[in-house]
Write a structure and sequence with these properties.
- The protein is of the alpha+beta class.
- It folds into three domains: 63 residues, Nucleic acid-binding proteins (OB fold (Dihydrolipoamide Acetyltransferase, E2P)), CATH 2.40.50.140; 67 residues, 5' to 3' exonuclease, C-terminal subdomain (DNA polymerase, domain 1), CATH 1.10.150.20; 68 residues.
- Helices cover 46% and strands 19% of the residues.
- It has a five-stranded mixed barrel.
- α2 packs across α3 and α7 crosses α8.
- The chain starts with a strand and ends with a helix.
- The mean pLDDT is 84.
Length: 209
């Protein structure tokens, strides 16, 4: 329903519920955020843009917001994992950046994920099992033809893996193609999907936000 809100930051709180209020067209929208997002917010009365997710329950509706689009999209995917609700998804993206969380899932590093508050070893393994499938496997049969002037040899598996995560996060084929071509030109590790993904997300955060 909502993609983002762009307006004046009229209030922010860090008490029991961490929130930010953005004024858009004379309406103040109360948005739940985490400490990582709170730290990136500008001073009050300055302009801000938050990518949001609407949480609709039987007895309430609430908004959650993030500075970076990929964090919002990872937040949405996280909530599809059984046992992970709004608060736990916010906590995970408070303790890990979007890329670091994706990287831990791809590497199946349940020990790292279980260091997050409220995440035990069993839930960490469950997050990896369900999230890795959602991020990688469902888009793997749609390869992108990467065109580059740099002579870099990349395995199809690594390209598909990075591409699949980008498409799963909601980026278009064209956006993913541009980001991956940029990543190929600028990666230091020639055949590494994590390096490709990290640079691609940095590119998309800068040019597609």
């Amino acid at each position: 329903m909502y993609d983002y809100f762009s307006g004046k930051l009229s209030a922010k709180t860090s008490t029991t519920n961490i929130t930010a209020t953005i004024e858009c067209g004379g309406i103040g929208y109360l948005i739940n955020v985490n400490n990582r997002t709170l730290a990136e917010l500008p001073p009050l009365n300055e302009q801000v843009k938050l990518y949001v997710s609407l949480i609709h329950k039987e007895d309430s509706m609430s908004l959650c917001g993030f500075i970076h689009k990929e964090d919002r999209d990872i937040f949405n995917i996280l909530q599809s994992v059984s046992g992970v609700g709004m608060k736990m998804a916010l906590t995970l993206l408070d303790e890990f950046s979007g890329f670091d969380l994706i990287s831990a899932v791809i590497k199946e590093d349940s020990k790292l994920i279980s260091t997050a508050k409220g995440i035990g070893p069993k839930l960490a393994q469950k997050i990896i099992l369900e999230l890795k499938d959602k991020l990688i496997n469902w888009q793997k049969n749609t390869p992108i033809n990467i065109v580059t002037s740099k002579n870099v040899e990349l395995s199809n598996d690594n390209i598909f893996e990075a591409q699949s995560v980008l498409l799963s996060l909601g980026y278009s084929i064209e956006e993913a193609k541009k980001a991956l071509e940029y990543a190929v030109q600028n990666c230091e590790k020639q055949d590494n999907s994590e390096e490709l993904l990290k640079i691609s997300l940095e590119y998309l955060s800068k040019f597609c936000s």
